[in-house]
Design a protein that fits this description.
The protein has 120 residues and is mainly beta. 0% of the residues lie in helices and 62% in strands. The protein has no helices and eleven strands. The protein has strands at 2-7, 10-13, 18-26, 28-39, 46-51, 57-59, 67-72, 77-82, 91-101, 106-110, 114-119. Strand 4 and strand 5 form a beta hairpin. It is elongated and about 45 Å long.
Length: 120
């Protein structure tokens, strides 16, 4: 059994900052790429940023220069520092991770989502 638990969402004014965190727990043997996705009302879920186990990062063009993804392999956590937030960043943010348990191969896991609302 694997769980991803997110924290850190909330309401912030445009130009402000938020930091999202996600912790993976359970019978985890190894974690590959971890990332953050978001889904705004009426839109498809989209990749915001991801990071490999070795630390290579990838960002959506819309967040480059404003968001920073990081991870702590020892703690099985991934973070998203969001600066200079814009109203268009408003969405539910989901943590995602490729995880291998002791009983299985790598599989995709998702958190429950955390709401980020940016007011203008």
């Amino acid at each position: 059994q694997v769980q991803l638990v997110e924290s850190g969402g909330g309401l912030v004014q445009a130009g402000g900052s938020l930091r999202l965190s996600c912790a993976a727990s359970g019978s985890i043997a190894s974690i590959g790429t971890m990332g953050w996705y978001r889904q705004a009302p009426g839109k498809q879920r989209e990749l915001v940023a991801d990071i490999t186990r070795g630390g290579s990062t990838n960002y959506a063009d819309s967040v480059k220069g404003r968001f920073t993804i990081s991870r702590d392999n020892a703690r099985n956590t991934v973070h998203l520092q969001m600066n200079s937030l814009k109203p268009e960043d408003t969405a539910v943010y989901y943590c995602n991770a490729l995880i291998r348990t002791y009983a299985s191969v790598y599989s995709d896991y998702w958190g429950q989502g955390t709401q980020v609302t940016v007011s203008s």
